Amino acid sequence: AGSYRFPLAAPGTYRFQIVPPANFNFPSTVATTTLQALSGAPFSIVAGSRGEQFMLNPGPALQIDVPLDPSAGSLQIVKTTTKAVIGVGEFLPYTLTIRNNSALAPVLNARVVDRLPVGFRYQRGSTRLNGAALPEPIVAADGRSVTFSIGNVAAGATVTLRYVAEVTAGARAGDAENIAQAAPPVTSNVARASVLVREDLFRERAILAGRVFVGECHERAREGKLGLANARIVLEDGRYALTDIEGRWHLDNIRPGTHVVQLDLDSLGDGYEVVACEDNSRFAGRTYSQFVNVRGGSLWRADFYVRKIGAADAAATSAAIRKAPQHVEVLPYDENWLATAEPGVEWLHPQESFNPSIPAIKVAVKHEPAHTLDLQLNGAKVNALNFDGTLHNLARTVALSGWRGINLREGDNVFVLTISDREGKVIGQQRRTIHYAAAPAKVAIVDEKSRLAADGKTRPVIAVRFTDKDGRPVRAGVGGEFQIAEPYQAYDPLQAIERDPLAGRIGGKPRFEIGEDGIALIELVPTTKTGEVVLTFTLNDRQRQELRVWLTPSNRDWVLVGFAQGTLGHKQLSGNMEALKAADADDQLFDENRIAFYAKGLIKGEYLLTVAYDTAKERGRPDRVNNEVLKQAIDPNQFYTLYGDATDPQFDAASVRKLYLRIEKAQFYALFGDYDTGLTVTELSRYSRTFNG
Predict the structure, then answer these.
(1) φ, ψ of residue 631 in degrees (nearest 5)
(2) pLDDT at 178 over 80
(3) Does residue 630 sit in helix, strand or coil?
(4) Cis peptide bond N-terminal to 106, omega within 30
(5) Do residues 208 and 300 lie in contact, with contact meaning Cβ atoms separated by under 8 Å?
(6) What CATH number has the domain bearing residue 426?
(7) Same domain, 545 and 656
(8) 581-640 pLDDT, tens per residue?
(9) Which of 71, 86, 117 is at the close of a domain?
(10) Closest to 562 (Cα-Cα) out of 513, 504, 611
């Protein structure tokens, strides 16, 4: 309000001619320093603000603020509060600084009318004028309009009015603006003060939780039942969760009202079938889908039951056990092997292709008992302390000599084995080069060992091979850290928490460990999001390498989750109609209809279609319960994050609009919904933007 502009003014000299409204004077006689101390400062008080001539030059827009002085008998009110964010049940102190603009005449019997936001109520006994108690104000029937009688205000004087308001359960989430103004015949400006009303924990959103049980139906045996891991639970808006190793799951930030919770049959595999253990109308005749009608602030449980019908994967009902990598070099050459060995000379270990995992190695050579062996490494004789002795078979026709703990250097290690007869005559010599790759210098994708399907139930696996500066595979056992760009997540940190919820590593970067042939397997959390995965590996203090790989859509059967509902009625209200209208309640014929569904499946046998539609979504209304944010992101400070399971809710159809649509094939997709810009190649900064469209 009060803004002006002249968009097509030619360069030249100008002067404002202003006809002020009633009770105001132009030009202002108040000092600029006084104006800059008012609420809403700083102001652009320059040549032209008080009717002077000013020059308009070509170039950027010229901003000139014009102050108007209230006429005699008017007040200037500044309203403030000490809190910026508040919740239901809290008390909010307000301060009104009231100044008589006239330096000559007092304002007699002044009154101030304060209009509180919806759901705010004046706290009796809290009014203070210049620190002294003031008689109770007049509170209107709607509870929002409060009239304070502040008496006489001397010429040029300033008084301070303070009071406290309570935020009741009727307050709406979002910005709450308070308005104060002098009551006629005294005039004043309109003073405003805003606070942000936040949603309390568990107030307007709900939580869904449950478990997928394995076994026959029996209520008393529920606590002893096994849970089915990696089963996919889907809602009608496309959000989903994969059950943890105990079959537990949860979904938070659920809007009040009707929802459909469905068990995705495609995630069960061939070894299980869903059984009906609860006979009620919520299932509507379908064992794998049920209605839930949640209220804000509630926790609703929805369980499903499955049973084995074949050789089901035992890993689905038990915790995955990772076998520790084996770095101890164990050779099969002993007395039992020697008993069946044929005579002759053979260098048994190590072979040329051997990739040692530690900087020490064993050597084993088969030869005749009469032979003498001499072993050199990099031109120097191997220390006699490394010799492990010689074994013979019972017929003493075959001998086996060994060395252990021979230290290696990084890079090539050249072994030379010299064989002599009884007289010391050299009868043979063999040479082998063993490469010890200690530090990775380069990493590359191994396509043939990767599993790059985004099916939402299996973990995508990205195989990467690490090589050293010579291009040889890095030894097994070397580990390190890597980063993965959103929206994808590494499975390793989540698995650590799943195995040990108290001691599992929370936060920090995920780690990799190199196995055979320099290959490390990077597992991702199961996802339905296809697209480019960006991995960044830290190879050393000065070297980082980025790899990109594409997750492709999987061919799957159709899944459809949704419902349609409608309500028609008429409401007639009486009493406090103004307050009821402010609360969006009025005499009217109303209907509440909603259609919401999510579907995913193949069309024409080659295109994967994902679609979601919800008529209840309201874009750009942060004060409404049905409002959504980009990517359906959840504020981690708003919800309780410990739900007794190890699941992480995902969103397959995130959109702030009512519609989400995605069609994809291989490395092509067309999308209408929320998406990231994907601008990751930046310098000295991080750029992350999300849009809808």
Answers:
(1) 60, 15
(2) yes
(3) helix
(4) no
(5) yes
(6) 2.60.40.10
(7) no
(8) 555 555 555 556 788 888 888 887 778 888 888 888 775 444 444 455 544 555 555 555
(9) 71
(10) 611
Give the Cα separation of 94 and 83 in Å (integer): 9
Q: List strand residue ranges (DSSP E) for 441-543, in order.
A: 442-445, 453-454, 461-467, 479-484, 511-513, 519-523, 531-538
User: 653: Cβ–Cβ under 8 A, 6 or more apart, which residues?
Assistant: 237, 238, 239, 598, 610, 611, 612, 660, 662, 673
Residue 54 and residue 48 in contact, taking contact as beta carbons nearer than 8 Å = yes
> Do residues 63 and 83 both lie within one domain?
no
pLDDT digit string (tens) for 203-260? 677 889 999 988 877 654 456 678 888 888 999 888 888 888 888 998 888 888 888 8
- Collect contacts of 488-491 with beta carbons under 8 A, ≥24 apart: 488/524, 488/525, 488/527, 488/529, 488/533, 488/551, 489/524, 489/525, 489/527, 489/648, 490/522, 490/523, 490/524, 490/525, 491/459, 491/523, 491/524, 491/525
Question: Of 532, 553, 574, which one is at a domain's C-terminal end?
Answer: 553
Of 535, 531, 530, give the one whose Cα is nearest residue 456.
530
Specify whether the CB–CB gap between 165 and 94 falls below 8 A: yes
Give the burial string for 406-434 (b: 16+ CB within 10 Å, else e): bebeeeebebbbebbeeeeeeeeeeebeb
Residues spanned by the domain of 399: 335-354+356-436
> Whole-model pTM?
0.58
Do 581 and 477 belong to one domain? Answer: no
Sign of CA dihedral 30, 36, 42, 48: positive
pLDDT tier for residue 560 given thresholds of 50, 70 and 90: confident
